[in-house]
């Protein structure tokens, strides 16, 4: 199938724009390939420290360069449901490596926080910065120069992007990402959301709300809605960093363990000591990122990746932009309906054909680059298949279905759920922003209403509780950007805004903060750049100004004359109290250094 014209054009200009930075990156990767890893080059003291905790046989093995050593970078902790399953992975990886004549060591642990736990709490203001802290933690673990490949154990919101940035910084060694899978289906996500709205209206008490939440988030594994965590897993598969079809296999199942064994063997195969050396810095290129963006649009994935993909790409010397993502959105149809843009959860999505079906369908319609490198080694067409266990308990891959198992969940390109992608990039006199429209009904894709200004998300909740928001309005929530507060997610305001929309009011949100992959039915222009603390136009909007969000034309505007806006002073806010307690003091340097959301909100 001939490549889609827009996909080809975006790829070509991405290659051209990135020419110098990509060349410099690859030169660095090649220099590191030439120089190491090479354990013989380590001094005897270096090497002795590096394998002091190993068994006698492993010490003997690691004393030379004839056997591959895998560094395990793990985000395990036993509080986060998504990362809890990783507890036993290192032992399984080590035993598999030993059985195959290799060695594996835990190189490091990286922090892993849950936005679901920190929603509306001070700790949420560390969340986005944790991505870059994870990248730096990865670098520290791999800096011992003991490893021929690395396996990355991570699932959730900032963890996978941080691990990818770290992996690309060590682009001279192969990288294999290993998922843990989603928890089994519990209380349907739409019922959970309905209970949240009823609680916001005072119609159910906290005990009933907690029962609903606990029935939804009920066991080890990733949350089952299609938020950032599960969007991460999709990206890793579309970029060829997972094994084919492995993203959404449930934890604790024989197939899940068998896939981890296969991932370990694959890591050994693609080292410089194996037969198919695949350093990740060469493997991941401009086409890989175009495929990732295409997958994000086709599935209506997380708005967080409008930040993360840009930051991840830059770690590989690739200058991805919001305009690239916007143009691709116009060419990629929406092919999946998974909550919050549908009733199905990721388990239903996987059972209906999931990622193997989507990759097959998009390849056949020229919406993806097939000629990319992957850890599987067979181009992206190798990912148009799904894993099954054979009678011997080994993994076999079968051709992906070409017909959706459930047409309410998956669609073919000639009958999409929507003609364009689930993410929309917005431009206008307010600045640049991002909207997730896959879960927003078409009648709400354009909202024009008077602004109500807020500087704290809890002020919106208080105004709702006081009955002050029963009207058409656009909530302009300022001073939430990366430099101001670390760009927290703002889901505390989702239930009340949803209630107001259900009452028939025109409601929308404009903010320099985040809403993430759980963004739901309210039209929200988020990630506004420049942010308020930098004097962005969002800080000049006043109560009563008419604000227009038009996702059909991609416009985001305050309908006030240029002359009036030019003469207004940008609002300021004393944020000193938001920069202390709960560890926020330690991140002052990151707040000072961080770039804008349109540049990935990165400190690097």
What does this structure look like?
With 604 residues, this protein is of the alpha/beta class. It has two domains: 5-35 and 67-184 and 219-399; 424-599, 3-Layer(bba) Sandwich (Glucose Oxidase, domain 1), CATH 3.50.30.80. Helix content is 38%, strand content 13%. It is built from 23 helices and 14 strands. It has an eight-stranded mixed sheet with strand order 7-8-12-11-10-9-13-14. Strands 2-1-3-4 form a four-stranded parallel sheet, with helices on both faces. Strand 9, helix 19 (457-465) and strand 10 (473-477) form a beta-alpha-beta unit. Helix 1 (5-17) packs across helix 14 (286-299), helix 9 runs antiparallel to helix 10 and helix 11 packs across helix 14 (286-299). The longest helix is centred in the first third of the chain and has 17 residues, at 19-35.
Task: Provide the descriptors you would attach to this structure in a database record.
14 strands, Glucose Oxidase, domain 1, 4-stranded parallel β-sheet, 8-stranded mixed β-sheet, 13% strand, alpha/beta, globular, 2 domains, 23 helices, 604 residues
Low-confidence stretches: none
Q: Tally the helices: what do you get?
A: 23
Tertiary shape: globular
The fraction of residues in strands falls at 5-15%
Tally of domains: 2
Strand arrangement across the biggest beta sheet? 7-8-12-11-10-9-13-14
Sum this structure up briefly.
By secondary structure, this protein is of the alpha/beta class. It has helices at about 5-15, 20-35, 45-50, 55-60, 90-100, 115-120, 125-140, 160-170, 190-200, 205-215, 230-240, 255-270, 280-285, 285-300, 305-315, 320-330, 345-350, 355-365, 455-465, 480-485, 495-500, 560-565, 590-595; strands spanning about 70-75, 105-110, 150-155, 175-180, 385-390, 395-400, 425-430, 430-435, 445-455, 475, 505-510, 525-530, 545-550, 555-560.
């Amino acid at each position: 199938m001939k490549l889609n014209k827009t996909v080809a054009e975006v790829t070509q200009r991405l290659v051209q724009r990135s020419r110098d930075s990509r060349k410099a990156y690859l030169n660095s990767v090649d220099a590191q390939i030439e120089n190491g890893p090479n354990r013989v080059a380590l001094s005897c003291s270096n090497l002795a420290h590096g394998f002091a905790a190993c068994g006698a046989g492993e010490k003997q093995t690691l004393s030379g360069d004839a056997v591959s050593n895998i560094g395990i970078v793990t985000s395990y902790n036993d509080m986060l449901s998504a990362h809890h399953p990783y507890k036993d992975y290192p032992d399984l990886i080590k035993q598999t490596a030993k059985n195959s004549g290799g060695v594996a060591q835990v190189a490091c642990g990286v922090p892993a926080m849950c936005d679901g736990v920190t929603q509306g709490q001070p700790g949420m203001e560390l969340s986005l910065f944790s991505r870059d802290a994870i990248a730096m933690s990865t670098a520290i673990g791999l800096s011992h120069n003991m490893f021929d490949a690395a396996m990355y154990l991570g699932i959730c919101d900032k963890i996978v992007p941080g691990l990818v940035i770290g992996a690309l910084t060590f682009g001279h060694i192969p990288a294999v990402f290993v998922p843990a899978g989603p928890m089994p289906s519990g209380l349907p996500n739409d019922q959970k959301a309905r209970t949240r709205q009823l609680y916001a209206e005072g119609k159910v008490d906290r005990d009933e709300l907690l029962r609903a939440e606990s029935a939804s988030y009920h066991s080890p594994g990733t949350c089952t809605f299609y938020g950032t965590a599960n969007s991460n897993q999709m990206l890793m598969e579309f970029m060829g960093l997972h094994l084919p079809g492995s993203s959404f296999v449930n934890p604790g199942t024989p197939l899940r363990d068998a896939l981890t064994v296969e991932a370990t063997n694959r890591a050994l195969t693609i080292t410089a000591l194996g037969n198919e050396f695949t350093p990740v810095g060469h493997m991941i290129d401009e086409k890989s990122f175009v495929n990732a963006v295409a997958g994000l649009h086709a599935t209506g994935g997380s708005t967080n990746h409008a930040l993360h993909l840009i930051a991840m790409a830059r770690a590989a010397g690739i200058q991805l932009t919001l305009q690239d993502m916007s143009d691709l959105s116009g060419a990629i149809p929406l092919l999946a309906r998974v909550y919050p843009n549908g009733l199905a959860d990721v388990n239903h999505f996987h059972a209906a054909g999931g990622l193997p079906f989507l990759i097959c369908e998009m390849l056949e319609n020229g919406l993806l680059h097939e000629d990319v490198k992957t850890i599987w080694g067979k181009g992206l067409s190798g990912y148009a298949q799904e894993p099954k266990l054979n009678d011997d308990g080994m993994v076999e891959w079968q051709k992906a279905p070409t017909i959706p198992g459930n047409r309410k969940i998956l669609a073919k390109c000639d009958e999409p759920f929507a003609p364009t992608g689930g993410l929309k990039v917005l431009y206008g006199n307010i600045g640049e922003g991002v909207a997730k429209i896959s879960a927003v009904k078409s009648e709400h894709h354009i909202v024009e209403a008077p602004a109500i200004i807020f500087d704290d998300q809890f002020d919106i909740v208080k105004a709702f509780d006081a009955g002050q928001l029963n009207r058409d309005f656009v909530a302009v929530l300022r001073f939430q950007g990366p430099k101001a507060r670390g760009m927290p997610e703002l889901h505390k305001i989702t239930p009340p805004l949803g209630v107001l929309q259900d009452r028939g009011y025109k409601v929308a949100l404009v903010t320099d903060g985040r809403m993430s992959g759980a963004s739901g039915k309210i039209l929200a222009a988020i990630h506004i750049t420049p942010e308020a603390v930098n004097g962005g136009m969002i800080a000049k909007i006043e109560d009563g100004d008419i604000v227009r969000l038009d996702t059909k034309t991609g416009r985001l505007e305050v309908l006030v004359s240029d002359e009036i806006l030019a003469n207004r002073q940008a609002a300021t806010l004393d944020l000193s109290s938001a920069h202390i307690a709960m560890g926020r003091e330690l991140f002052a340097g990151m707040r000072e250094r961080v770039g804008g959301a349109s540049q990935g909100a990165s400190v690097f």
